[in-house]
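Following up on my earlier thread - several people asked me to post the actual chain instead of describing it. Fair enough. Here it is, all 201 residues.
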Amino acid sequence: MKDKEPNPTFITVVWVFLTVCIIAGTFTAVLATVGKIPGDSVDPLEKFYENAGAFAYITVMVLPLILYMEFKFIMTLLCCHASAKSSIHLKLLEGTAMPVCFCREAFRVWQTVLIYCVPIALMYLPIFYLCLTSGAGPIYIIILFFMGFFMAYDLTLVLYVLFYKIKDKMDYISIDHHVYYLTLYKKPYANTSKKAAKENI
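Reply from S.P.:
Thanks for posting it. Predicted structure:
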């Protein structure tokens, strides 16, 4: 077992860099594509905005973050051995006030990567699609800017996990305080599932 506390300043640098890459890269791709696709740009949610008014804009701004956290919860649940009630918690991280999905279990590296990368993909692709079809609509650019911080935050963790996998060759990793405090394991930890308990009898 080995504890890791990455440098907070360097974490912030990587986080900001990834955020800029996500936003700038998407915006550049959208601007380069808009106008080259046959037909006029049409917002798929145009009718929703017309019928719901201001409520629609509030929903579109808040819903992505809720869905993003739900995706992370579901992915964590799929990899978790213990019950979700005792192991998985949605909370605000101390120090940064960022919403995180906290789990006390240690996961294999590939499980950790999936837990964080799948929600990023599921959230990014619809935002990119809406930016593209709406002709770089301002509301979706704002959503991209807003969600870019959260996706880059988790992507920073993924990069650190892969870095430690290569450097320390660990088998399991426990995310104790998001990217700020990690615990690495080279040997399988005790499986607390009922199935494992029966096999040990």
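The longest strand covers residues 88-92. That should answer part of your original question.
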